[in-house]
Amino acid sequence: MSGSDSPAARLQALFEGHRLTPTQRRIAHGMVRRAADVPFLSSVELAELAGVSQPSVTRFAVALGFDGYPALRRHLRELAPLEQPADAGVCNEYQQAVEAEIENLRHLAEALADPGPVREAGRLLSRSRPLPVLGLRAAAAQAHGFAYFAAKVHPDVRLLNEGGTVLLDRIDATARAGAGALLCFALPRHPREVVDALAHAKGAGLTVVTVADSAFAPVAKMSDLLLPAAVGTGLAFDTACAPMLLGRVLLEAMCDGLPDAQARLEEFDARAASRGLFVE
């Protein structure tokens, strides 16, 4: 099955062109995460999955142009008539969290069947001098990991992982220094200052590339190129394997746009060996 014909991709296409409220975006996000199961879920089950009320699910279906949720579910079954997944057996909550992350990675693999958006993002990031990388709160670790590796091949990476009044100053400084793009990692819960920072970056003339948990995340309208990678929500704290992996894929695409990337890596390896930096 191609990425453009996957259940998740069909759902994304269904939602495109509709102005959804934050609650409706939450429902859409939940449906994409469980795309294969959605045609078999009742409105009550979908409401529980998304953490909203059952009437909110009904209003969501109407907003998409259907008479109600049953009509939406019939439409989804007609698009992709599938057998209801068999029960995979009883799993404890830890196993369920792992299985959910595996499913998130499957969705990411389906999305990457069309490599165009990632390649375009890699081109933008490789050409930006300097390259600001933004991630606050839950997304700070993703931004730090990307910036750590990117600095080995990119000549000027600037990590923006602290908020406050100085953040906008630092964005302005990168724009004045010649930056053309900003990479943002945005994960739930989405800090308001990330949305404000992206609006400021766009106002400063930067092209915003965002890795977010959903195409319906609050940062979507502030992003020129948004790359979705779902987070796991089955544990007390969200898990972010798919956003982390997408960050590494972006690094690969960025390296393709940096002709001296391999030479820089070899130079680093030589220096590391001479210093005895790593225990072999």
Describe the structure.
The protein has 280 residues and is of the alpha/beta class. The protein is 52% helix and 9% strand. The chain has 12 helices and 5 strands. A 5-stranded parallel β-sheet has the order 2-1-3-4-5, with helices on both faces. Strand 3 (181-186), helix 10 and strand 4 (207-212) form a beta-alpha-beta unit. The longest helix is centred in the middle third of the chain and has 19 residues, at 93-111. The radius of gyration is 20 Å and the shape is globular. It starts with 6 loop residues before the first helix and ends in a 5-residue tail after the last helix. 37% of the residues are buried. The model is unreliable at 82-86 (pLDDT under 50).
Distance between the termini: 42 Å
Number of helix segments?
A: 12
Spans with pLDDT under 50 lasting ≥5 residues?
82-86
Largest sheet: 5 strands, parallel
Q: How confident overall, as mean pLDDT? A: 89
Query: Largest sheet, order of strands side by side?
Result: 2-1-3-4-5
Written as H for each helix and E for each strand, in order along the chain, the element string is HHHHHHHEHEHEHEEHH
Shape type: globular
Percentage of β-strand residues: 5-15%
Keywords:
alpha/beta; 52% helix; globular; 5 strands; 280 residues; 12 helices; single chain
Report a brief summary of the structure.
The protein has 280 residues and is an alpha/beta fold.
Topology, pairings included?
Layout: H1 7-15, H2 22-33, H3 43-50, H4 54-63, H5 69-79, H6 93-111, H7 116-127, E1 131-134, H8 140-150, E2 157-160, H9 166-176, E3 181-186, H10 192-203, E4 207-212, E5 225-228, H11 241-256, H12 261-275
Parallel strand pairs: 1-2, 1-3, 3-4, 4-5
